[in-house]
Specification:
155 residues; five-stranded antiparallel β-sheet
Length: 155
């Protein structure tokens, strides 16, 4: 049973998307108090230097889909690329990099959190970076120059 070059890579990236954080918020309240909040679709972690840390398993993070939908779509691209095997590695990487840029632009123009004092929001496009690192294992390499891949013409 093989894992690489199959649709299972897309499923694995979807799991990575749901369990890894997509945003970190750092807010310096005072000289003694710093707050750090990490959000993932299925959990969140809150740490404050003046209070205790808390970890919550909460599916309500799924409501923040506007900030992590590019990660879900990167998993879908990996699934489609492995299933149809009609994308070249360059085309696959180009699409994932575009999604990374979209995710960073969304975080820049629509910050995850606000307040006073102004927090620093750091988007974490972990799924997109993992998808790029797994390009070799998601999209098979052409074995000959005559391999037919339909999307060379349509892209």
């Amino acid at each position: 049973m093989t894992f690489w070059h199959t649709e299972k890579v897309g499923y694995a990236l979807l799991v990575v998307c749901l369990v890894t954080p997509f945003n970190v918020m750092i807010q310096i309240v005072s000289a003694e108090d710093v707050m750090v909040v990490m959000w993932a679709p299925l959990w969140q972690y809150v740490w404050s230097s003046m209070h205790d840390a808390s970890f919550a398993v909460s599916p309500f993070g799924l409501f923040f889909i506007i900030w992590f939908w590019p990660s879900v779509y990167a998993a879908k691209i990996a699934y489609d690329a492995a299933k149809t095997q009609k994308l070249s590695r360059y085309q696959y990487a180009k699409r994932v990099v575009l999604l990374l840029a979209i995710q960073l632009l969304i975080a820049a123009f629509l910050p995850m959190s606000s307040g006073t004092p102004t927090p620093t929001n750091l988007p974490l496009p972990i799924t997109g970076v993992v998808a790029l690192l797994l390009t070799k294992f998601t999209v098979p390499e052409l074995t000959s120059p005559w391999d037919e891949q339909e999307s060379f013409v349509s892209d």
